[in-house]
Amino acid sequence: MLLLLPPSEGKTAPTRGAPVDLSALSASALTGAREQVLGHVSELSARPDAPDVLGVGAAVADEVRRNTALLSAPAAPAAKVYTGVLYTAAGLAGLTGTARRRANRSVRIFSGLWGVLGPADRVPAYRLSMGVDLPGTGKLSTFWRRHLPDVLDEQAAGDVVVDCRSATYAAAWRPPAGAEHVQVQVVRESGGRRQVVSHNAKHARGVLTHHLLVRAGTPPRTAEELAAAAEEMIDTASTVVGAVHAVELDGVRGRRTLTLVERA
Q: Residue 105 to residues 102, 112, 213: CA-CA distances in angstroms?
């Protein structure tokens, strides 16, 4: 099982700890690419027009300025730096024992700055979306699409890839033909009608991530095993709004969709 997550816009900036060590990050083949992006985002973030280029508002100007000192800022595990709805539900920072080891093996967090990270990789807080056209580097999704196959294709081959990424981050890497690619979508059902949800989808994907990491038994290796594992989350007696009450698997081998159906 390979679990793909987007980063979160919201991040908790570490207040102490050694700075990032690029040579110690997982996927070490990306070190040169990471250095390139770090250099260019640092230069950009010192410019007065940096928020406009990064596509953010003045309210996060302090976060943009942090980009100028990423190699000296305190770092912490990505599982603690990334916050927000999905990461709160996934609970990566609180995992222990078998669940933590499974997360370190299986979870890959996509990032406009780092390309891809594991939960234990120590990084500083930063502000950089995969959708940014970074001066000196270009569109980050296109840039990383040239580098990520070297570090992800082999791990994905012959396994099930559980894709919880948004479209922006999905553009940076597509699983190879030898992998069973399952995209996770969330819909809200009311009165027999269904509507795709966005904000609440982050929570549901986080709940699914947590469940897949802490459940007993071996991780799923096929789309059918993934669907069966997801069905374990269904509480048929629950009437709670947002609770998953159905799981559906569609599509053909190689590219499938797992739909989590929530109560309205």
A: 5, 21, 10
